């Protein structure tokens, strides 16, 4: 086995090698966090776009189909039931409103899913957790051998 920098595991590495390895790993971690944030935001934007499309479709159906559907439905109801023509037009309008309400409910469902997406919040929590771990990291305590100890000598200033 070998360490991320290619040196064998258990081999003594210099401070420069350790620092380079730590820098490389931190850079990879930051890039991975950014990629995660992009993927989660892309999914939330996609849900929002579907919601907006459904709301737009509901509005377009209601506006553009009313004249044609009202006339066709009203005359169809009148032919079938022999009711007053005004009542037939009210019933055809109610049918159009019902279709628009169903489309609006579909849009509302997707809008709720888009707002429930916690992508940015999860990424921020992950970054805070990483920062907390790095802040609490302490260097390994090293003992100074007695033979390498240096005595502190006071200098006189003259």
Summary of the model, kept short:
Helix content is 74%, strand content 0%. By secondary structure, the protein is an all-alpha fold.
What does this structure look like?
There is one protein chain. The chain has 3 helices and no strands. It has helices spanning 15-81, 85-116, 119-136. Helix 1 (15-81) runs antiparallel to helix 3. The chain is rod-shaped.
Annotation field: number of helices: 3
Task: Report the strand count.
Answer: 0
Strand content: under 5%
Low-pLDDT residue spans: none
Q: How far apart are the first and last residues' alpha carbons, in Å?
A: 60 Å
Shape: rod-shaped
User: Largest sheet at a glance?
Assistant: none
Mean pLDDT: 79
The assigned structural class equals: mainly alpha
Work out the helicity level.
Answer: over 70%
Order of helices and strands: HHH
C-alpha Rg (nearest Å): 35 Å
Structural topology:
Layout: H1 15-81, H2 85-116, H3 119-136
Helix pairs in contact: 1-2, 1-3
Q: What labels describe this entry?
A:
158 residues; mainly alpha; 74% helix; rod-shaped
